[in-house]
Every structure is written in C-alpha cells, then in structure tokens.
Amino acid sequence: MAATVSPMTQIPPEGAPEHVSLADYLPYQLATSSTAVSRLIARAYEDRFGLSIPQWRLMSVLAEGPLTQQAAVVRTAMDKVRVSRAAQDLVERRLAVRLSNRVDRRSHSLELTAAGRRLFAEIVPLARAYEAALLAGLAPSEVTTLKRLLGQLEIAAGTLYGADTAPPGSERPE
To answer: In what order do the strands lie in the sheet with 67-68?
Structure first.
C-alpha cells in the first residue's frame, strides 16, 4: 500500500533547505528512541525470563484474556508472522495454550496458562520499574502530554499510510 500525503500537509516554504538533518528529523528520533528502549527492555526480558520482545508483547495482551491470532496482530502492532512465531514459542514453553473455536474449528484463540500468568505477574513489576525509570525526568503532565502526542502521531501515520489505526487501548470501529 502506497503512502499518501494529505492536501492538509504543509509544504516547506520557498527557500527552505533542500536537505533533512537526520538528528532533527522526527521520524528518525522516534525510531532511534524506540530502538534504544526496546534494546534495553529486550536484554532484561531475555536475561531474566528468556522472553523476546514479541513474546512479551503477546503475553501482555493475552494477560487481559484470550485472543484470536488476528486480534493479537492488531493489539500488539506486530505482523502476523511475528505473532505466529511468538505464539508458537509460548505454546512450546507451556506459557500459552491454543483453544479451538467451537463455532469455527479452523479458528483458535490463544490464552495464557497458569504458568504464563505466573511469569507475567513476575515480569510486570520489572516492566513498570523500567517505565518509571525512563519517565523519571518528566513531570506527570509531561508524561500525559507525551502519551497523547504519541497517540496522535500513530493516528496521523496510519492515516497517511491509508490504514485505520488507533492508539493502544482506544476504541476501534468494528
């Protein structure tokens, strides 16, 4: 799917520099920030719990209740191959189980096992501690603003890409 630019997009004024300074380019800043945080978290989850980031993300959404693999794709913002691999790994470790859909036998849902719920409960304090450490230099109002702005950027990117996206936890049209 090709990206589109809205007629509302502001075009740089005449005489604006023709180049982009990578260090000042917001998409680059977002990508490098995300990579740095993911690398930090990945090392901690791998070292302490033997989990990859995709496995952690999947466990996190499954902790809220069973999901189909397609719903997990949407909720985790991961592609279906990554969700499938993470699901297989969790099932092999007996942290999750696949449940058959009684109405449609071709479909199944994923659910954390008791062992998966126990491991998740062990991870949550560490996840919250990392989040608190990352946000320690910001005032509560700045954290609220940051989360709101990130949600708006996600929606804008989805709109430009042509997808129907919404920030995690927000209502999605059925």
So the answer is: 67-68, 108-112, 96-100
